[in-house]
Design brief:
CATH architecture: 3-Layer(aba) Sandwich
Helix content: 40-55%
Strand order of the largest sheet: 3-4-2-1-5-6
Oligomer: single chain
Shape: globular
Bound molecules: farnesyl diphosphate
Number of strands: 6
CATH superfamily: Decaprenyl diphosphate synthase-like
Largest sheet: 6 strands, parallel
Number of domains: 1
Distance between the termini: 43 Å
């Protein structure tokens, strides 16, 4: 027999299957959604498959969630695809992860162009292999005139790196007379971050049951609503995404006020 806790958990999980686009209030869709797509490795392990099979499956989910975001009028979707810490993984996994943007864009770029999606990448591009860089530059170039959903990949991204780079640039601009110390405030600092021309995320989703930020958009997520799910990223479906948005819409955001 299930105990009270397991029963409650089961009920909650079952309820995800009830969510569809129709449950969303289209007048208050989060403008910017950020996602930590976690659990690819565990998804593969559960099936006795190599970890890269999980990443491959996860790539297909990206397509579904981009489509769903576009349909309900999300303005920006930032996806954590590779962190500055992910270089510590086995060489073969890193190599595969660096091939994923090419694979994804090779298959879906025409669809993204047709759907008016604008592709962007934030992160330290200098360390990316030439083939990865070529694929993302082509995608950014082919979609630069699109004014629909902004699909922002965080690739070789780390929030601490981003903040330090911003500070260095502010110091340089102060030394060369472009800025004075009194100009430095929150708004100005945001302009020195890699997401400077995007609004801050309204909603952060993390899959796979982990409940941490893992060096992701530490500054920008200051007032975001967080939504966590046990679902592993390769199993994440539109109904889970809609559930996150419906639950976001039920929350009262006060931004420190009452
Ligand atoms: C974390 O899961 C996931 C990643 C480090 C890679 C994310 C990449 C994708 C979802 C593929 C889509 C990418 C593009 C560029 C289209 P994990 O490997 O840490 O999983 P685990 O915690 O279960 O081991």
């Amino acid at each position: 027999m299930l105990d009270k806790f397991s029963l409650k958990k089961k009920k909650k999980e079952a309820s995800a299957s009830n969510y569809s686009k129709e449950h969303i209030d289209l007048s208050s869709v989060p403008s910017h959604i950020a996602i930590i797509m976690d659990g690819n490795g565990r998804w593969a392990k559960k099936r006795g498959l190599p970890r890269i099979a999980g990443h491959h499956e996860g790539m297909k989910v990206v397509r579904k969630i981009v489509k769903a975001s576009n349909e309900i009028g999300v303005k920006a979707l930032t996806l954590y695809a590779f962190s500055t810490e992910n270089w510590k993984r086995p060489k073969s996994e890193v190599e595969y992860l660096m091939r994923l943007p090419e694979e994804f864009l090779g298959s879906f770029l025409p669809e993204l162009v047709a759907e008016n999606v604008q592709v962007r990448v934030m992160g330290n591009k200098e360390q990316l292999p030439a083939h990865t860089l070529r694929a993302i530059n082509k995608a950014m170039n082919d979609t630069k005139e699109n004014d629909g959903l902004i699909l922002n990949f965080a690739l070789n991204y780390g929030s601490r790196f981003e903040i330090i780079e911003g500070i260095k640039q502010i110091i340089k601009d102060t030394n060369n007379g472009k800025l004075s110390v009194d100009d430095i405030n929150e708004e100005l600092f945001s302009e020195y971050l890699m997401s400077s021309d995007l609004a801050e995320p309204d909603l952060l989703i993390r899959t796979s049951g982990e409940v941490r930020l893992s060096n992701f958009m530490l500054w920008q997520l200051a007032y975001a609503e967080f939504w966590f799910t046990e679902v592993l990223w390769p199993d994440f479906e539109e109904k889970n995404f809609y559930q996150a948005i419906v639950e976001y819409q039920r929350r009262g955001r006060r931004f420190g006020g009452v």
